[in-house]
Design a protein that fits this description.
- The chain is built from eleven helices and 21 strands.
- Helix content is about 25%, strand content about 25%.
- By secondary structure, it is α/β, with parallel strands linked by helices.
- Bound molecules: ligand LLP.
- Ligand LLP binds next to helix 10 and helix 11.
- This is Diaminopimelate decarboxylase.
- Pfam families: Orn_Arg_deC_N, Orn_DAP_Arg_deC.
Length: about 425
Amino acid sequence: MTAFTYRKRVLHAEHVPLPAIAEAVGTPTYVYSSAALRSHFRAVTESFGEHPHLVCYSVKANSTLAVLRLLAEEGSGFDIVSGGELARVKAAGGAPNKTVFAGVGKTAEEMAAALAAGVLFFNVESPEELELLDAVGRAQGRRAPFAIRVNPNVDARTHRYIATGLKTSKFGVPFEEAVGLYSRARKMKGLEAVGLDCHIGSQITLTSPFKAALTKVGGLYQELKAQGHGLRYLDVGGGLGITYTEEKPPSTAEYARTILAAVGATGATLVFEPGRSVVGNAGVLLTRVLFRKKTPARQFVVVDAGMNDLMRPALYDAHHGLQPLVQRRGKAVDVDVVGPVCESTDVLARQRPLVLPRQGELYAFMSAGAYGMSMASTYNSRPRPAEVMVDGSAWRVVRERERVEDLWRGESP
Ligand code: LLP
């Protein structure tokens, strides 16, 4: 769904003109569309129809309480990777018993808190982690429900920084070792095997990697069931890509068909961990032009959002569309849109054709809802942006702009 459209040359989020938000709240500010969030979430869950499934939104993509609350109200579960994310889910009113806990480096304290909270299961990524989880389970006098995350050794054909299913990756347990691990776990009193898990990467724009990985994982699930393990859940991870520029990712319906063809017959309750496909195109980052600067080699446009606010271009060379909040006619020139941070990688849009922006004009970085605010930092002692949620013609600030005093909270001079 496209929630951000021009009306009379002014970019709107649903029915709200974005310049009104920028003037009231300042910039940089993230703005989310509730209608887009709901529609993207519903598209995933509805495309699996009657097939038993649970969508566990991947909190890392955007962990803002208002986003989590909206999705919890839609019936979403959550995929978490830290005690901090669990605390956020609880603070937003999310259900721990619809929450799965992944990650290669859980501490005993994080495991104990999640077990006490009653998470649905832990996705375990190594033999040593399995032993620690067993000890945590025994200490609480209960069996910790777990799935082993297997690494199917499949190339997700995405950016190498966000591919996780190759055998050189730190994630998951080698496919061949899974059977042995489940039989070892059977003898451990603090554990209960309830599922099998895999996740091969992010921003995947083809169905073939999902098909290849899940065909293998579905076969393993059947094998483990045949060996008498009482598995009920098959967690297929997240990773469905979105359109930033020219990408043509599969629709949720095509994605669902691929998954069901590969693992539908296992009888397992399917668990999904979508992040980007739910929030990515439901958010934008508003920014204001500070200066223009022409050098013999480049036309620069300096804006008030930097790599600390939106890290993806600097970290992954990622492309985010850039649109003026008020359209103006003119000849397009190639500009480098850069932030104020003292790093040469603080380029948010490189050689982008734009009608030459003017000082004070407002722009929106598009498709910024996923891995935008959740990866923001205070580098260069820049307070993190405000966040706004739009719903129809209404909008509200859901996170105040960080205050300068917040920057040294807990420090002693
Ligand atoms: N499940 C697991 C185990 C994951 O590691 C991830 C993402 C997801 C689910 C959600 O994947 P999604 O549906 O969002 O693709 N910061 C990078 C993306 C890192 C993805 C990390 N894991 C970026 O900005 O592109």
